[in-house]
Design a protein that fits this description.
With 159 residues, the protein is mainly β. It is built from no helices and nine strands. The strands form three sheets. A four-stranded antiparallel β-sheet has the order 1-2-3-4, with no helix packed on it. It is globular, with a radius of gyration of 16 Å.
Length: 159
């Protein structure tokens, strides 16, 4: 019925995060951990892995959206609902090893449908599963960019 391109196709959102046309030849950014399904909404939550070349990204410059992301997709249409990238331009194979976990969170007396997912670093990110907004703060922080790997350009920030 539909297909979601975890490496964005030319002309689609996220393609511009794969610099120098690297989306055209990078071989893989799959979903190897199981999906999670919100039956009430008819959505699937995809834990997308690191791109080909888990420990070197010189051949795929840019932040490489939708790699290392949780992606919410309408199960009937394949339409993207929201996403969050947990690792920009992964050089460490820090993708999602487990399926996203669906649960409810109560904050300020309000029940919120939530989705949590962990990376291999291990960080636990928790989002409103409908809006994609973080339930607990997530900051994109500066990180060291020094590298002696020829051709490598480390992302200057990471969540």
């Amino acid at each position: 019925k539909w297909r979601f391109n975890s490496i964005p196709a030319r002309g689609t959102p996220g393609y511009d995060t794969w610099l120098d046309g690297s989306a055209e030849y990078t071989g893989n950014t799959g979903v190897w951990a199981p999906f999670s399904v919100d039956v009430k909404r008819g959505w699937v939550y995809l834990p997308v892995e690191a791109p080909t070349g888990d420990y070197y990204g010189g051949h795929r410059p840019g932040n490489n959206l939708f790699s290392d992301s949780i992606v919410a997709v309408d199960a009937l249409t394949g339409k993207l609902k929201w996403y969050f990238q947990a690792v920009h331009h992964d050089l460490w194979d820090y993708d999602m090893p487990i399926p996203p976990i669906l649960f409810d969170v109560t904050r300020d007396g309000k029940k919120i449908p939530a989705v949590g997912f962990m990376t291999k670093n291990p960080y636990l990110f928790i989002f409103d599963r409908v809006t994609g907004k973080p339930i607990y703060p997530v900051r994109d922080l500066p990180v060291p960019t020094d590298t002696d790997m020829q051709g490598e350009k480390v992302s200057p920030t990471q969540p």
